[in-house]
Design a protein that fits this description.
- This protein is of the alpha/beta class.
- Helix content is about 35%, strand content about 20%.
- The protein has eleven helices and 13 strands.
- The strands form three sheets. The protein has a nine-stranded mixed β-sheet. It has a two-stranded antiparallel ribbon with strand order 2-6. A two-stranded antiparallel ribbon has the order 10-13.
- The longest helix is centred in the first third of the chain and has 14 residues.
- The chain starts with 6 loop residues before the first strand and ends with a helix.
């Protein structure tokens, strides 16, 4: 089975300005050295994406991407090469200059990570200021009004919230015509879900592993979208090409393995992971409520 690589994540940095509950990026959980991607590497990666037909880049993986001093320039360069960009942000460091760059660039989606309203959010995402983030969201909405093929969204990671809090979150952002979404909480390579809000079904293959790849800030390559600590990282894109790594015998073997469920037990990280074992869904009443936003 030939699997084409159409999208990839590029990590500008794994530094973060917050200390969120349960996040791997806290020093006691992070196994990776912290750093920022060099411009020369980013330029090389975007050039290769353009050459081999990668049409979309998620400009984030671990960390807060807007901390990179050249983040706005990254958006501009990808646009020059015809690449669509999306990214997640905690929204605390977004200034008007970056918003203007987003307006002019080929950025198609900006997702703001929020885990509640007001103090509830600040309790879970320590160091964040809800008022600043909300003002930045609404300012970006105003600046980009009329921009085609562009979406601003907010996402709540469900952990200890109750049903009423999730409903409040959805209504709060719907009333502002911002698309709300709900995601599951990841802890130690596992999805932890609130069963009052979400449900699971068994999964037969690792779709995430087949489709979601990432280049870490130092140029190493990981084929697991949840490998935030880089335990599966290999290669060096400072001297290798994306195509060379994607078409390597090792990656061909790994892609075949992802289609054969039993083979996951060969790898410790896959053995201990339940991300490929289940698909998680928002219950209908929450899905319907979130999708009714007028954008």
């Amino acid at each position: 089975m030939k699997v084409e690589l159409k999208a990839i994540s590029i990590e500008p940095t794994n530094h973060c300005n917050l200390k969120c509950n349960g996040c791997y990026a806290q020093e006691k959980k992070s196994l990776r050295k912290k750093g920022f991607m060099k411009w020369s590497l980013y330029e090389k990666l975007i050039n290769e994406c353009s050459e081999i037909g990668i049409v979309g880049v998620a400009l984030n993986f671990a960390g807060e991407p807007t901390l990179h001093k050249d983040f706005g320039r990254m958006l501009e360069y990808a646009t020059e090469k015809g690449i669509s960009i999306s990214f997640n942000t905690n929204g605390n460091k977004m200034d008007e200059s970056l918003m203007e760059t987003i307006l002019k660039s080929n950025t198609t989606r900006v997702n703001f990570s929020l885990d509640g309203i007001g103090e509830k959010h600040e309790e879970r995402r320590k160091g964040s200021n809800f008022e600043i983030v909300e003002n930045n969201i609404l300012k970006l909405k105003s600046i980009t009004k009329g921009k085609k093929r562009f979406l601003i969204s907010t996402s709540m990671v469900v952990s200890d919230q109750d049903i009423q809090e999730v409903k409040q979150f959805i209504k709060y952002w719907k009333d502002k015509n911002i698309l709300p979404s709900i995601r599951t909480f990841i802890e130690d390579m596992s999805f932890v879900i609130n069963t009052d809000i979400m449900y699971s079904t068994p999964s037969k293959v690792c779709i995430r592993g087949l489709r979601n790849k990432a280049v870490l800030w130092d140029g190493s390559f990981t084929y697991c979208c949840s490998d935030l600590n880089g335990e599966l990282a290999f290669g060096n894109l400072n001297i290798q090409s994306i195509k060379e790594i994607w078409e390597s015998e090792f990656m061909k073997y790994e892609r075949k393995k992802m289609l054969r469920k039993a083979d996951f037990y060969e790898s410790d990280i896959c053995f201990n992971c339940n991300l490929w074992k289940q698909n998680n869904y928002l219950k209908e009443e929450f899905m319907r409520s979130a999708s009714e936003c007028e954008l």
